[in-house]
């Protein structure tokens, strides 16, 4: 059975996840208005992910015999100055979710509610991935917003399209072979041939 404190915090997280879903869905509408269709689809997908996060919490609370509760959520912003300002807002939202998840985990541990503690580990891992993803996208948006950055991004895209593939086994053998003094490196072979000629 959940304690009163944990129940309040879990229900608070339910509402926060619902709010995040609403924010991202509204962001997708603004992005569509700017003809940023792919980014709009990205945020639409994340709106659905946040709703899924909310439902996981909602179901867990009810499974414990308590009652899940979704409070009223604020109306999301409908307009943004730039794509970067939108991405900054999204990053702040993910940071806010992470902060509350961490508080929940700490509360569960303090109360020795190991079932809830274990349940929340999925959210800890998920927030780590989400923060990394959103901060990476914000960083790329800032790079592309400069003339030099656009050139760098174009080059990076050309590398992707070049068909360069590193076989999975390359990484598996890399550590084992890196200390082999008899290992031949293509660059060394080229260097030897050059001097022989």
Automatic annotation (TrEMBL):
One of its GO terms (biological process) is intracellular iron ion homeostasis. Its EC number is 1.16.3.2. GO terms for molecular function: ferric iron binding; ferrous iron binding; ferroxidase activity; identical protein binding. GO terms for cellular component: cytosol. Gene3D superfamilies: 1.20.1260.10. It holds the Pfam family Ferritin. It is found in: Cytoplasm. The keyword DNA repair does not apply. Residues 172-197 have a biased composition (Basic and acidic residues). PROSITE patterns: FERRITIN_LIKE. Iron-storage protein. CDD domains: Nonheme_Ferritin. This is Ferritin. InterPro entries: Ferritin, Ferritin-like, Ferritin-like_diiron, Ferritin-like_SF, Ferritin_DPS_dom, Ferritin_prok. Belongs to the ferritin family. Prokaryotic subfamily. It catalyses: 4 Fe(2+) + O2 + 6 H2O = 4 iron(III) oxide-hydroxide + 12 H(+). Residues 1-145 form the Ferritin-like diiron domain. Fe cation binds at residues 17, 50, 53, 94, 127. Keywords: Cytoplasm, Iron, Iron storage, Metal-binding, Oxidoreductase. Residues 165-197 are annotated as: Disordered. The keyword Aminoacyl-tRNA synthetase does not apply.
């Amino acid at each position: 059975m959940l304690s009163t404190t944990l129940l309040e915090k879990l229900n608070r997280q339910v509402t926060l996840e619902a709010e995040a879903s609403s924010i991202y869905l509204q962001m997708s509408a603004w992005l569509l208005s700017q003809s940023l269709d792919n980014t709009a689809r990205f945020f639409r997908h994340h709106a659905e992910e946040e709703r899924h996060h909310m439902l996981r919490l909602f179901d867990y609370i009810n499974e414990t015999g308590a009652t899940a509760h979704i409070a009223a959520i604020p109306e999301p912003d409908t307009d943004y100055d730039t794509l970067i300002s939108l991405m900054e807002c999204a990053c702040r939202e993910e940071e806010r979710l992470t902060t509350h998840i961490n508080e929940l985990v700490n509360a569960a541990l303090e109360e020795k509610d190991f079932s809830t503690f274990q349940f929340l580990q999925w959210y800890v891992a998920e927030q780590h991935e989400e923060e990394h993803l959103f901060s990476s996208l914000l960083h790329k948006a800032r790079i592309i917003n400069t003339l030099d950055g656009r050139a760098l991004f174009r080059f990076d895209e050309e590398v992707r399209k070049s068909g360069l593939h590193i076989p999975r086994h390359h990484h598996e053998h890399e550590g084992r072979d890196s200390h082999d003094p008899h290992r031949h490196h293509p660059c060394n072979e080229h260097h030897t041939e050059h001097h022989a000629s």
